[in-house]
């Protein structure tokens, strides 16, 4: 499971803004956010870069967490609201 949607929303970034920054169509980004498709390393880097350019402050491992067994399971959604400070600085 990735945290693209949670980090994007926590930073106040719309899906439309992120997909425009990436120059992707909406369905591609939506599929990645929903976990229906898994991005490759280059796409993952592009997503993180675009999130940071749009105001988030996150790293690859924040958006695409890795555990000892690989990517976190799709059912492991955690409350990422705690990763974003109220003062506007993102800590993800």
* CATH architecture assignment: Orthogonal Bundle
CATH class division: Mainly Alpha
Overall average pLDDT = 81
Q: What's the arrangement of strands in the largest beta sheet? A: 1-2
The parts where pLDDT drops under 50 for at least 5 residues are 68-87
What name is given to the CATH topology? 434 Repressor (Amino-terminal Domain)
Organism: Pseudomonas muyukensis
Protein name: Helix-turn-helix domain-containing protein
Domain HTH cro/C1-type: 4-52
Pfam families: HTH_3
Can you lay out the helices and strands and say which pair or pack?
Layout: H1 4-10, H2 15-22, H3 26-34, H4 41-53, H5 60-63, E1 66-67, E2 70-71
Antiparallel strand pairs: 1-2
Protein name: Helix-turn-helix domain-containing protein
Organism: Pseudomonas muyukensis
Domain HTH cro/C1-type: 4-52
């Amino acid at each position: 499971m990735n945290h693209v949607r949670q980090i994007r929303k926590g930073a106040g970034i719309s899906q439309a803004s992120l997909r425009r920054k990436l120059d992707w169509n909406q369905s591609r980004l939506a599929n990645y956010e929903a976990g229906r498709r898994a991005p490759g390393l280059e796409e993952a880097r592009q997503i993180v870069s675009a999130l940071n350019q749009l105001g988030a402050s996150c790293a690859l491992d924040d958006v695409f967490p890795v555990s000892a067994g690989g990517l976190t399971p799709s059912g492991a959604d955690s409350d990422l609201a705690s990763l974003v400070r109220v003062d506007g600085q993102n800590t993800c």
